[in-house]
Amino acid sequence: MRKPLVTRGERFDLSTVSPQMEAVIDSFDRYLEASPYRLGRTKHAVMGPVAKILERAGTGYWSEEALAGYALRVHEMNPKARGFIPTEARAAMESGIQELMQIMNQVPVTAQAKVLERLEYTLYYRRRRRASEWMEDIRRKFEKFLRSRYESVEALREAWKDKNATFEVYPSRKNEAYRKGKGKRKEDIDAFYASLELEEDIEEEEE
Fold it and tell me: How many CA atoms lie within 13 Å of 124's alpha carbon, on the beta-carbon side?
């Protein structure tokens, strides 16, 4: 019995579509920056509907309009969106989908998974880095805020009724400690955010 002849296709060079990939990343990045997914720690919170767009784009069954409709619906279902998407966010999302589908039509089927993987993890890294930088900036501001209120870490610990309290802490309003907290700790966190006139808080990992 003759063995089947197996041939290997020429490996696709992803660098040939690097500018197009960067355009996709930039578009989705602009969408996420203007959306309820602007800040996040879990992958779902960071990527929003973009992860599903990338997943479906590789199946070959979705058109640009269908992907846009799906992503729009996911966006609207986010409680923070209140059923609304800003014009600039929608335009960026649509641009990202259009540019993505152009790449899918350009590269061989055998290379599409690699392209989608590269897009996903590059965008995820960019979003997580930005959220981390934002989080560290808030932490520094909160430290300055606390030091202006308390002369020493001992005074802070006494006021918060916490022997392990430090000035170097992130003022989360999402965790259980805040939700169950009473007294000066909670008052200080609320006063800090009120001083910034900042209603938005970073999403915490689900416990």
Answer: 15
Distance, in Å, from the CA atom of 39 to the CA atom of 200, rounded to the nearest integer, reads: 9
What dihedral do alpha carbons 195, 201, 202, 204 form, nearest 10°?
120
pLDDT, one tens digit per residue, over 9-67 is 568 898 899 999 999 999 999 999 998 888 777 888 889 999 999 999 989 899 999 99
Distance of alpha carbon 86 from alpha carbon 35, whole angstroms: 8
Q: What is the largest CA-CA distance in the chain?
A: 87
At 36, list the tokens. 């309820």
**3-state SS record for 66-134:** HHHHHHHHHHHHCHHHCCCCCHHHHHHHHHHHHHHHHHHHHCCHHHHHHHHHHHHHHHHHHHHHHHHHH
- pTM reported for the whole predicted model: 0.79
Torsion region of 183: left, alpha or beta (phi above 0 gives left; psi -120 to 50 gives alpha): left
Assess contact for 124 and 40: CB atoms under 8 A: no
Q: Is the separation of the CB atoms in 116 and 54 below 8 Å?
A: yes
Work out the number of other CB atoms within 10 angstroms of the CB of residue 73. Answer: 10
